Amino acid sequence: MPERSAVKQSRLGRGAALARLALRIGGRYAARSPWLVFASADRKRDLRHDLAFRSAEEVAEELGSMKGALMKLGQMASYIDEDLPPRFRATMARLQHSAPPMDAALARSVIVQELGDGPERIFERWDPLPIAAASIGQVHRAITRDGRAAAVKVQYPGIARSITSDLRNVALLRRVAAAAFPGLDATALIEELGERLRDEVDYVLEAENQELFATYYQGHPFIHVPHVINELSTSRVLTSELVIGTRFDAVREWGQRERDLAAETIHRFVQRSLYRLHAFNGDPHPGNYLFHGGGRVSFLDFGLTKHFSDEDLAPLVDALRFLVFERDGEGFRAALERAGFLRPGAPVPTSTVVDRFGHFYGTVLRDEPMTITPEYASAIVRRFFDAGGPLAQFSDVPRTYVVLQRINIGLYAVLGSLNATANWRRIGEEMWPFVNGPASTPMGEADAEWESRQERSLVRTA
Amino acid sequence: MTMPQPTGLINVESFARALDRAVPQRPADDGLFGPSSVVWRVHRDRAYLLAGVRSLMMQALHPLPMAGVAQHSTWQEDPFGRLAATGGYILAVTYGDTKTAHAAAARVRSIHTHVKGTDPITGLAYQAGDPSLLLWIHAALVDSIVKVVQRYGNALDAAAADRYVAEMVTFAEIVGVPSQLAPANVAALDAYIRSVDLLQATPAAREAIAIVLDPPRLDAPTLELWHDLGRVAVGTLPDWAREMYGFAMPPESLMEREAVRQLIGAIDFAFEALPGVLEARERIELRMRAHA
Is B76 at the interface with chain A, CB within 8 A? Predict the structure, then answer.
């Protein structure tokens, strides 16, 4: 066995920890763009049919035994940890990219197991080639027996059991998290990971959430959520109405007018879902949007829906009201303390609190049109993760609101890359419960008209 | 004034480079084994690293090869580099084309010609090129891979294990073991290992294995992962080997298949994130599929 060459080799190498070396390659970021957060998710994946999974054992080899869970952990950390170098993100993208699809026979076997017969008999037509990779599964096109075009999400066999088992090995997850992301709170990270993965593997839960949104937005003039086809859905198969539209990448090439309309719809979807429906998809990324022009957008993938209670929202609504509307710094500070973002009695002047946290409200502070440039969006995202500011040691993101932080980051990243202009304040006011402002744009008028129709029909039903 | 750079003792990048180099982009031929061999299938198992650690613990129990390593190499400065070089050699012989495999073996033989001396414990003279010593190194490796893959890797039934041991005779041959000396099935391998009577844990072996199991200058969480892997490796040793070292049998919960596969999977995930690893594995997979 050769031994001398080994020594020579290692002297060329850098010293570092096993996992960190692998996961945190490269130097610190120079220019950080929120677009990076979405680089992997948005691009349509090249499915590696030549490496397709042919059995549950092959799935277990590639995605079981911690691998799927750690991919997710890495993806989550890339939202949270600003120190992660671009090469880490590229690596995560590569690993996620690399998950091959199931071959036709394996996907068929899941349909047989879940729906009781082969897809060619369950459906009028079934496309055995998947059109996209999905979280722990893949999406097939089909036409139902009653003639509806459908998107059928099929989960990898055995993955739910294996992920559940992996999540139980908290000791190992904690070690890996501590080794790979020494700057992050491993316990919080793993709790969050568990919550998200358990939600993701349960397609029944996802179907319920999707249907909640689809029903709420039924008939909406520009926000569309496809309905679930319940009789063809189980915990491992989720069948929805098929949506055909333009992907985000292509929309970025559209004219500015169209991009502004698309941005307004996304903004309205976030505001309305949060302040009126009290629910939001916690994993907003533009891969989950399909665009139809004229501001019409379809929203897909409700695997990580978070529901907010009135009590969850109250301090946030207060913070917004005190800062933006009443210009009351002390009231703003007290609301942040109630929400748990700021430790009560922190020895920091209120003006500093207003200065630091106020940045997150930058788009709605003034009643005027404002362009969200990519630079502005990255500056905001950087603020979210600023661990070095004067408030760092007194501030925290309570678990309830972690998902909101992600929504905000996602929203800024999307609006920034659309370079969108609007009077975001006026649009927000339409939905904020303490204002209930009038329609501020043609879209707002259509939205208000839809809402009053909904209310009338609710009254009729009652 | 320049500060000296810290020396890295755990160098997974060299493992990654070794794998990338060992799996050729455009092989001239299918090499010594070929895509339909059991050797190809077994040597890409994720349990490979665990088998490697166990293999070092077994190999070190023969005082003469151990003395050769202790007296002729500075591997203690870089145990992981040594592991990577050995691993890289095995991968090159496995997946490289015939010319590459023979060149790698020739390099090993040429290094061995310079390694000779006397073991201070047994007082016996040794030469690294001695077929009986090479045979021990070979058998300890093959035994470790079979035992670890059967327990923690992908399905390897008795017939496939026999075929693997038989195919591996070529590995022994190319470094200078006459093929009739190398065990050609699992039973012969077990019998050979039982028949070697010099085995003991010399001070050199203890020192070497202590470094392998507890490498210095690792950060705490990574060291914990490595400790777990080492304890599992100890748990896979035959009782007599474990007793020679005086190691306790690790608790059963640590040795469970699911838990060990999770540990291996976590370490392998970090490995797979390195440039070239995934791509090399895909090249192997595609060639195997083309032959299926």
Answer: no
